[in-house]
Design brief:
α2 packs across α4. It is built from five helices and seven strands; from the N terminus they run ββαββαβββααα. A three-stranded antiparallel beta sheet has the order 1-2-5. It has a two-stranded antiparallel sheet with strand order 3-4. It is α+β, with helices and mostly antiparallel strands. The N and C termini lie close together (about 10 Å).
């Protein structure tokens, strides 16, 4: 099988109905896709199942954040996003998307 897979991807979170806003107002997160090795290094196996280090995912994968401003400060990086208070659900949603890379799964499903 021959595949062409982009190394970066754009993600528009559904957090706070962001994906329902006009496109030019939506928060957009540009991230670098994780390799299998990198993904497995972020997983932690516990007695209750598996967990992952979402903070490292956000710090290392996000290339740029567009249209996010908190208290007149533009938030452009994963590190800055993690430092914002009250955005845990946005952070978690974004990290889950990056880990699962659901858009890539959909693209590959259409080719098979």
């Amino acid at each position: 099988m021959k595949l062409n897979i982009s190394q970066t991807e754009n993600y528009v979170p559904s957090w706070n109905k962001n994906n329902k806003l006009p496109e030019n107002e939506q928060i957009k997160i540009i991230y670098e896709r994780l390799s299998g090795d990198h993904t497995s290094s972020l997983l932690r196996i516990t007695g209750d199942g598996a967990d992952f280090d979402y903070m490292t995912v956000l710090k290392n994968s996000i290339i740029e954040i567009e249209n996010l401003e908190i208290n007149n400060k533009k938030i452009k990086t994963g590190k800055q996003l993690l430092e914002c208070k009250g955005l845990y659900s946005l952070c978690f949603e974004t990290a889950m998307h990056i880990i699962s890379d659901s858009k890539l799964s959909e693209e590959l499903g259409k080719k098979n």
